[in-house]
Design brief:
- There is one protein chain.
- By secondary structure, the protein is α+β, with helices and mostly antiparallel strands.
- The protein has 2 helices and 7 strands; from the N terminus they run ββαβββββα.
- The chain has a 4-stranded antiparallel beta sheet, with helices on one face.
Amino acid sequence: MATIYAVSSGEYSDYGIEAIFSSLALAEAWIASFPIRAYGERRIEEYELDPLDLSDGSRRHWFVRLQRETGAVKECNQDDYWSGESTGMDVKDGFYTHCFATDEKHAIKIANERRIQWMAKEAQKP
């Protein structure tokens, strides 16, 4: 997959993407061509181009929350809120993830695999 680089600036209602580039060097050159801004710095955001082929229509977006230690399902539903393929822990000791899956069983399987990987990474931290 290819990565694209978006130069953005502003916050909240003032947020906007100024330009999109095929390389980090071009995005950095764009930023360097402007004087220092008095309000809000320009930044580079990276995005995967075509991160997932959904053209066959077989997968839908799901949000899954599992009990961290046991993997018991606390919540699993189709969700219209997209925050990227985010994964993490919430304040209620629940592991959560957003994913694309064919059905509820598939979504739970993906979530459990991610939970196990997440826990392994956490265990390696000093």
